[in-house]
Design brief:
Elements lengths: L1 H6 L3 H14 L4 H13 L3 H14 L4 H13 L3 H14 L4 H13 L3 H14 L4 H13 L3 H14 L4 H14 L2 H14 L4 H13 L3 H13 L4 H14 L3 H14 L4 H13 L3 H14 L4 H13 L3 H14 L4 H13 L3 H14 L4 H13 L3 H14 L4 H13 L3 H7 L31 E5 L4 H7 L3 H6 L3 E6 L4 H4 L6 E5 L9 E4 L3 H4 L18 H11 L5 E6 L9 H4 L7 H4 L4 E5 L18 E3 L7 H10 L2 E4 L3 H8 L4 E5 L20 E5 L7 H16 L10
Length: about 725
C-alpha cells in the first residue's frame, strides 16, 4: 500500500505507511530507502539523509542509496560531500547513469566546468541517448559563454529528441547570444507553430525580436509570456525595455514598477527605471531608483556610474564628480567609469582633467569608442581640431556605422569652417537618437540638390529645434525660384511668422495631414543641398518680417520707455544638455540694469521668465511676455526694440532673421554654427558674439556687454545700418 501511494505521488500517505512498516521492521533497508525518497519529496532533507545513512549502514553496497544520498547532500548545499557519495555510487555501479549525471550537475554547481563536462560525456558514452546529460552539458557551456560548444551539445541532444521544445529553446538562446538572430527566430517560430502556448519559447522569441530592433513584436511576446505565467517579473522588465526603446517612457516606467512590485530585489529593474526617469527629466526620482539598485548590489559599478549621472543632471556637480571617482576606485579596470568621469569634468569646463580621464579609459580599453568620441569632443572645444578629427576617425575605423562619431565629427568640421565635408557628414545626425530622438522616414526620396526640382512638389520639414528652423528657413524662397512647388512643414508656433517669407509655398503645421509630394528634404539638410560654403551662405537679411500692425502697436507702447529699448533673454530650455553652460542667472546681469539711458524689456519665456518679477535680481524689467503666444507675437515686439541681448536660444535666430541688432553672450564650448574665434556671424550680419574666455564664467562676458551697451546708449558706438 505504501508503495502504491509512493508511485502515485501521494507523499503524506506514503510517509505515514512507510513509518509504520519501518516501526515493525527496523532493519528493512529497502523500506528505509523508499521512505527517504518520500522525505526528500516532502522537502524534509535532513530526515531523508538520516534514513539514507541507516540504509547504507544496513547495506553499504547499495549504489542507489549512495546516489540518492548525494542528491540530498546537493539539495542541502553540501556539494563536496555530495561528490563523495556520488563517486561511491559509481564505484559500486560504474554504469549508474543517475549518479554519473548527478556528478556532472554538482561539479557544474561548483563551477568546475571541465570536470562536469567529463562526467556528462561519460554518461553519453554509456548511453548515447542520455538526453539529460547532453542538455545539462549544453546549459553549462551556455552559462560560461562557450556558445559554439553548447550548440554542439544541443544538436547532439536533438538527434536523440528532435522535437524537444526545451532543447530547441536553449539552442535558439545560444544563437541569439551569438548574433545569429534570423536562425534563432526561425527555430522559435517553428516550435510555436506546432504549439503556441510554450511560454519559455514565447519569451525567448521576445528576446530575439528585441535584439533585432522589432520592439513592438517583442512587446507582444513578453506580454503573452507573462499571461502564461512565465517568469512574470522578468517579462514586465523586458516589456519595459521595449517600451523605453519605443520612447513610450511613461509606460516603460509603469512596467518597471510592475516588475519591482513582484520582485522587490530586482536590481536591474531599479536601474533601468532610473535611466527612464532621467530621460523623463526626473533626476530626483532617478537618484532614488539608483540608490535602491545599489542597496541590493552595493558594489555594482554600472549602478554607481548611473547614480553619478543622476547627480550630474541634478546640477550637483561636486557630488557627481565624487560619485564617478568612487566608481573608478571601486573598479579601477572600468573604462566606462573613467569615460563618464571625463564627461562630467568636460561638463564642468575642466577640460585638461577630462582628457586625462579619457586617456585612462582608453589605456584600459583602446577600442572604447565612446571614450574616443568624448575625447575628440573635448579636443574640439579646446580648438584642437586636427587632433579631434583624428580621434573621431579612430572611432569610425573601429565601428564604421557609429552615427554619433560621424555626426560629432561633422560639427567639428563645420565649426572649423570646413563646410564641404561637414554638411555631408552631418547627414549622419539622422541615425543618432542623441541628436534626432525620433527619426522620420518617407517613401519618397530625399532631395539633396542633385535632382532638377522644376515642376516637382518638394516637402521641406523641420527636423530640429525652433532656432534651427528659423536659421534654415532662409533657403525656402530659393527653392520656389527653382520652379518647385514647396510645402513647408514647421512647428505650429512658427507658422504665422514664416508664412510671410517671400516666395510661393504652402505652409503646414507639424502634425497635420501632408499633401502628396515628390521629394522631401529636412531643413538641416538644405545647406548640403545648396552646397553652402562660408562665402555662399544666403544672408539676405531680413528674410523674416513681423506683422506691421503689431509692430506699430508695440512702438506706441514702448515710446514711453526712456532711452534704448533692449530685449533680454537669459535662459534656454533647461532640458537641453548644454543649458547649464549657456543660461545665465538673471541676477548676474544686474550690471546691465545700471547702464544709464537703457530700458530693459523681458523676452524670456518659460519658468525662468518669472525671475523678471523678482526684485532680488536687482534689475527692473518691463515684462509683457504673457501677451506673447507664438513667434509672430514675439517678432513684433523684437522688431519694435532697438537691440536684443540673448543667450544662445531661438531668440537670437529670430532677431537675426528680422535684421535686428542682437548681442549673444556665448558659452565657451560654443555651438558649431557660430564658428571659432569670431565675434560676428556670416549667418546673421547684425549678430555680435561675446564668448566666454573661461569655461563657465560669464563675468567677463557681462562686463564686455555692459561696456558695449554704455557706448551704444551714450552715442559713442555707431548705430548699425538697417540690413536689407
Amino acid at each position: 500500500m505504501a508503495i502504491a501511494h509512493h508511485s502515485a505521488g501521494r507523499w503524506q500517505q506514503a510517509d505515514e505507511l512507510y513509518g509504520r512498516v519501518a516501526g515493525i521492521d527496523r532493519r528493512n533497508h529497502e523500506v528505509l530507502h523508499r521512505w527517504a525518497l518520500v522525505k526528500e519529496a516532502l522537502g524534509q532533507h535532513r530526515a531523508a539523509l538520516q534514513l539514507l545513512d541507516k540504509t547504507i549502514h544496513l547495506k553499504p553496497t547499495a549504489a542507489l542509496a549512495h546516489c540518492h544520498r548525494g542528491f540530498v547532500l546537493q539539495d542541502l548545499g553540501r556539494r563536496r560531500e555530495a561528490v563523495a557519495s556520488l563517486e561511491r555510487a559509481v564505484r559500486l555501479q560504474p554504469s549508474l547513469l543517475d549518479a554519473i549525471i548527478g556528478l556532472g550537475t554538482v561539479h557544474a554547481e561548483l563551477d568546475e566546468v571541465e570536470a562536469a563536462c567529463a562526467w556528462f560525456d561519460r554518461a553519453v558514452q554509456i548511453d548515447p541517448r542520455a538526453v539529460d546529460a547532453l542538455l545539462n552539458k549544453g546549459l553549462l557551456l551556455e552559462t560560461h559563454g562557450r556558445l559554439d560548444d553548447a550548440i554542439t551539445a544541443f544538436d547532439m541532444a536533438l538527434r536523440v529528441a528532435p522535437g524537444d521544445a526545451t532543447i530547441l529553446q536553449r539552442k535558439a538562446s545560444c544563437l541569439r547570444q551569438r548574433g545569429a538572430l534570423s536562425e534563432a527566430l526561425g527555430i522559435c517560430d517553428r516550435v510555436l507553430g506546432a504549439r503556441s502556448d510554450l511560454a519559455p519559447v514565447v519569451f525567448e522569441r521576445g528576446l530575439i525580436l528585441a535584439e533585432s530592433g522589432e520592439h513592438e513584436r517583442a512587446l507582444t511576446d513578453f506580454q503573452r509570456a507573462a499571461d502564461l505565467h512565465h517568469v512574470v517579473p522578468v517579462c514586465h522588465y523586458n516589456s519595459a525595455n521595449c517600451l523605453a526603446a519605443l520612447d513610450r517612457l511613461r509606460e516603460a516606467q509603469a512596467a518597471y514598477r510592475q516588475a519591482i512590485a513582484l520582485q522587490a530585489d530586482y536590481a536591474e529593474a531599479f536601474q533601468n527605471l532610473g535611466r527612464v526617469l532621467l530621460r523623463l527629466h526626473q533626476p530626483d526620482d532617478a537618484l532614488a531608483a539608483f540608490d535602491s539598485a545599489i542597496s541590493i548590489r552595493p558594489n555594482n559599478i554600472v549602478f554607481l556610474i548611473d547614480r553619478a549621472d543622476a547627480l550630474l543632471q541634478l546640477g550637483r556637480m561636486e557630488e557627481a564628480l565624487a560619485g564617478y571617482d568612487h566608481a573608478a576606485t571601486t573598479d579601477q579596470a572600468s573604462a566606462d567609469a573613467f569615460d563618464r568621469w571625463g564627461n562630467a569634468l568636460h561638463a564642468a569646463g575642466r577640460y585638461d582633467e577630462a582628457l586625462a580621464r579619457f586617456d585612462k579609459a582608453l589605456a584600459i580599453d583602446p577600442g572604447h569608442i565612446h571614450a574616443l568620441v568624448n575625447l575628440a569632443g573635448t579636443l574640439r572645444v579646446m580648438g584642437r581640431y586636427d587632433e579631434a578629427l583624428a580621434r573621431f576617425a579612430d572611432a569610425i575605423a573601429i565601428k564604421p556605422n557609429f552615427a554619433d562619431a560621424h555626426a560629432d565629427a561633422a560639427m567639428c568640421r563645420l565649426e572649423a569652417g570646413d563646410f564641404a565635408t561637414g554638411w555631408k557628414m552631418l547627414e549622419w545626425r539622422k541615425e543618432t537618437r542623441r541628436i534626432v530622438p525620433r527619426p522620420r522616414t518617407f517613401s519618397q526620396p530625399q532631395w539633396l540638390g542633385d535632382e532638377d526640382i522644376d515642376g516637382k512638389t518638394l516637402l521641406i520639414w523641420a527636423d530640429h529645434g525652433l532656432g534651427d528652423t528659423i536659421q534654415f528657413a532662409r533657403y525656402v524662397p530659393y527653392l520656389a525660384a527653382r520652379g518647385a512647388r514647396v510645402i513647408l512643414e514647421v512647428q505650429p508656433s512658427l507658422t504665422g511668422l514664416l508664412a510671410r517669407m517671400t516666395g510661393a509655398f504652402e505652409m503646414i503645421a507639424a502634425g497635420g495631414a501632408l499633401p502628396d509630394f515628390d521629394l522631401h528634404c529636412p531643413m538641416m539638410s538644405l545647406p548640403l543641398a545648396f552646397k553652402t560654403t562660408l562665402d555662399t551662405i544666403p544672408a539676405d537679411i531680413p528674410y523674416l518680417r513681423a506683422d506691421g500692425a503689431r509692430v506699430a502697436a508695440w512702438h506706441e507702447r514702448l515710446v514711453s520707455l526712456p532711452g534704448l529699448k533692449v530685449g533680454l533673454v537669459w535662459a534656454g530650455n533647461p532640458q537641453f544638455s548644454v543649458d547649464r553652460h549657456r543660461s545665465i542667472p538673471l541676477g548676474q546681469l544686474a550690471p546691465l540694469g545700471a547702464v544709464r539711458g537703457v530700458s530693459l524689456v523681458s523676452l524670456q519665456i518659460g519658468t525662468a521668465g518669472r525671475d523678471a518679477r523678482d526684485p532680488a535680481t536687482g534689475l527692473t524689467l518691463c515684462d509683457w511676455t504673457a501677451e506673447l503666444h507664438d513667434f509672430d507675437d514675439t517678432a513684433a515686439l523684437v522688431a519694435a526694440l532697438d537691440l536684443v541681448i540673448s543667450v544662445d536660444t531661438a531668440a537670437v535666430h529670430l532677431a537675426g532673421a528680422l535684421g535686428k541688432t542682437v548681442w549673444m553672450p556665448n558659452r565657451y564650448d560654443t555651438c558649431w554654427r557660430w564658428l571659432r574665434d569670431r565675434d560676428d556671424s556670416p549667418w546673421y550680419p547684425t549678430l555680435r558674439l561675446f564668448r566666454q574666455t573661461r569655461p563657465g564664467d560669464s563675468s567677463d562676458v557681462i562686463a564686455r556687454i555692459r561696456d558695449a551697451l554704455e557706448d551704444r546708449a551714450s552715442g559713442r558706438a555707431p548705430t548699425p545700418a538697417c540690413v536689407r
